[in-house]
Amino acid sequence: MTYQEVLENAKECMGTYCKACPVCNGKACRNQIPGPGAKGVGDTAIRNYEKWQDIRVNMDTICENRPIDASLELFGQTFAYPFFAGPVGAVNMHYSEKYDDISYNQELVSACAEAGIAAFTGDGVNPLVMEGATAAIKESKGMGVPTIKPWNLETIQEKLALAAESGSFAVAMDVDAAGLPFLKNMTPPAGSKTVEELAEVVHMAGVPFIVKGVMTVGGALKAKEAGAAAIVVSNHGGRVLDQCPATAEVLEEIADAVGDSMKILVDGGIRSGTDIFKALALGADGVIIARPFVTAIYGGGKEGAAAYIEKLGSELKDTMQMCGAHTLKDITRDMVRYC
């Protein structure tokens, strides 16, 4: 199955919100919730995509001609590529009823594991979402990252217990989900976390803990203080706050501040292997891509996800070859430039 076939199939079953666009740039669905858009006008999601396009790569083929190794070592695991599938929740509401969260994660987690990468799984109000996600990760021998919403501590403890049972190599919390409407006015309260509260969760996790939703140097330093092993530079795909900077605009300064002491991932508008190369050049250790994986699963199940992973991997390797980087460690900032 080709990726073009995946897109065509997805258009037939994607529902009324997502248009399965050839490039997921946030424009067609910008302010649709339910749907993959934003709770505001959606300008941040669009900016995420466009700012990666404002960065260009510097071609240099006057170098040794040898094979490209795009593998990444992270938390004791070796991955074929430095990118991961991102967490997505309520797929039956935001996309269509072809899948629910449980069946979606079953397809996604196993497809990613078989392709040599890993999937971050989503969370939801329904406890079955996390139960299904962690069961899928367990079936794939721990090759997945359960991503827990910033619930109250008791609920977090329950979900961490499921994560531990799955054998996952890491656990994440998308703290930027504090801006999602369904977390408002919950009892017990859910939402933003203090450094002390995060530190308690990090301690309970028992595996490397990833704080997703960091957009400032100050936020990165607070995640570091809490003991996080990694952060994800992320604005929740531009879904929770209009007028927010793009992740490409803040990645470099955050990497300069904490890149020597914790792992840095980034998401938001990254749509090609060349975009992945740009992110690595700006200081990221790896990237996360979410919405296009939904299109891939809806358009072809595990085979669709495999086609998308192969597309991204091939683009990344080609960009590395054309810029003179034979391993991820060879990718440096002078290999990119701003328009």
From TrEMBL:
Catalytic activity, as annotated: (S)-lactate + O2 = pyruvate + H2O2
Needed co-factor(s): FMN
CDD domains (UniProt xref): alpha_hydroxyacid_oxid_FMN
UniProt keyword Oxidoreductase, yes or no: yes
Domain of life where this protein originates: Bacteria
All copies of domain FMN hydroxy acid dehydrogenase, residue ranges: 37-339
InterPro entries: Aldolase_TIM, Alpha-hydoxy_acid_DH_FMN, FMN-dep_DH, FMN_HAD
Keywords: Flavoprotein, FMN, Oxidoreductase
Range of residues in the leader sequence: none
SUPFAM superfamilies: FMN-linked oxidoreductases
One Pfam family in the UniProt entry: FMN_dh
Family according to the record: Belongs to the FMN-dependent alpha-hydroxy acid dehydrogenase family.
PANTHER family given in the database record: 2-HYDROXYACID OXIDASE 1, S -2-HYDROXY-ACID OXIDASE-RELATED
Protein name (database record): L-lactate oxidase
Provenance organism: Bariatricus massiliensis
